[in-house]
Design goal:
This protein is an alpha+beta fold and about 140 residues long. It is built from 4 helices and 4 strands; from the N terminus they run αβαβαβαβ. It has helices at about 20, 45-60, 85-90, 120-125; strands at about 30, 70-75, 100, 130-135. Strands 1-2-4-3 form a 4-stranded mixed β-sheet, with no helix packed on it. The longest helix is centred in the middle third of the chain and has 14 residues, at about 45-60. InterPro entries: BMT5-like.
């Protein structure tokens, strides 16, 4: 992606993108594997749902009509209902997302790189889903 001119930012507050990127606009904003690492309810909701909802709301200010927000998640029973993507989309003013599945076994050349530590979600799970929201 870098060779194609993409910028990769780390340490970004996904719920307030303007703190990091100002008023810049993008054709596509990507959030790979959001995870709060807690199941304790926040405002009566799973905190992962709250995070995704706030991220989508924050993203709207950085998109033009037709631009995209892409969120990838682990597709496993553990996360079932954690994100409630349709509800998050509605709260943030997006239509329901298009959903694409990804199974690493379908791509023999695929190599996963974890950015946090030696363990990675891909070692425990075999399927992932990508949600694409259109502004």
């Amino acid at each position: 992606m870098l060779k194609l001119g993409a910028q990769i930012k780390t340490g970004v507050d996904a719920t307030c993108l303007s703190k990091t990127i100002g008023q810049r606009r993008f054709r596509t904003i990507i959030f790979q594997f959001p995870n709060v690492a807690s199941r304790e309810a926040l405002y009566g909701q799973n905190p992962n749902h709250v995070l995704v909802t706030r991220f989508l709301k924050s993203s709207r200010a950085h998109l033009k009509s037709g631009d995209l927000v892409v969120i990838s998640t682990v597709d496993s029973p553990f996360y079932e209902g954690a994100f409630k993507m349709d509800d998050a989309a509605k709260k943030a003013g997006f239509a329901g997302p298009d959903i694409y599945t990804f199974n690493p076994k379908d791509y023999p050349a695929y190599s996963h790189q974890n950015t946090a530590d030696e363990e990675a979600a891909i070692h425990e799970h075999t399927a992932f889903a990508t949600f694409v929201f259109s502004a």
